[in-house]
Structures are given as structure tokens and as C-alpha cells.
Amino acid sequence: MKREVALQLLREKLKNKNLFKHSLATEACLKEIANHFGEDTESWALAGLLHDIDYEETNADPTRHGLVGADFLETKGLDESIVKAIKVHSGHLPPESKLDWAIFAADPLTGLIVASALMHPDKKLKSLDVDFVLRRFKEKRFAMGANREQINTCKNLGLELNEFIGICLRGMQHISDELGL
Q1: In total, how many domains does the chain have?
Q2: pTM
Q3: For 2-45, how does the pLDDT look when each residue is reduced to its tens digit (9 = 90+)?
Q4: 27: domain CATH number?
């Protein structure tokens, strides 16, 4: 599936602008992680972009989140590894591959990075550095929805937390204009 098709599907399914931006942020992170590991950046980016495609549809029944989207995307011919990663990110399957671990850990990290940018004096991603985000990570009451345990599973990719934050932050900084930060 080409990115243009994925974006069109995402726009049809997601009306919430912040959720759409979260999808773009996750795409940017996964693309940067794939680049770091020499993996297929296009397929990893698609996984990040499409991981929450069913979020609004399954909002009333969160136990279906990830499953509905994966099933829908499977009918569109999306690669099996991406479909599996989408199920993994929402806890329906255990992470096994690098892609699985990357999406599982990056999904909540995007929220922490956005929250960090919003509390920074100039509210810009480009002004953030790893140390700033790491300090926010250690504040338990800050961005409480960003699951720290899940983010820490980056270790299963062989990455230390500071390195993982740096990779994702760099990816998000590349699209800061699209994210409005």
C-alpha cells in the first residue's frame, strides 16, 4: 500500500485532528527507527501511520481496538507483518519482531514527546532535546497516559531509553510543521 492510499483511508476513518497528528507522529518515529536498524522504512512508517485507524470506531469498546483496524487493513491487502504489528500495539498479540517492539514502545512515547513540547517555553519540538524529555519521563505525574513501562520495552530492540527517545524525537522534529509544533 502506498502512503497516499493510507492517508486517504486514515482521513476517512479519523476525524479527530489530534488523533490524526498522533498517527503522523508515530509514523515519523517508526520511519526513523527503521532507518536506524536498516529496515524497510516504508512498511514500518505505514504501520505507525495506520496503527490507530480504528480508534474512533472502537472508542465505545476499547477491547476491539487494533483488531477492527487490522481486519479492515487486511482486506485492503496490507502486508501481514504490519497487520500483526497493529494487533500487537493494542495488546492483542505479544511483540515478537523488531517492528512489533518498535510500535509497542513508540506509540506512548509520541504522547510524552508532544506533552514535553507543549510545556516547553516556546512550545516547539525543535527546541526539545533528549535530556528535557527524559526529565519529563521521570516525572510520574507528567503525561500520565504515556505508559512508561511500555516505552521502556525499547530495551527489547537493544536500545537504551535515551537513545530511543533521541531517535523518535528526531523523527518527530522532521515533521514538526505538520504536527503544528
Answers
A1: 1
A2: 0.96
A3: 999 999 999 999 999 999 999 999 999 999 999 999 999 999 99
A4: 1.10.3210
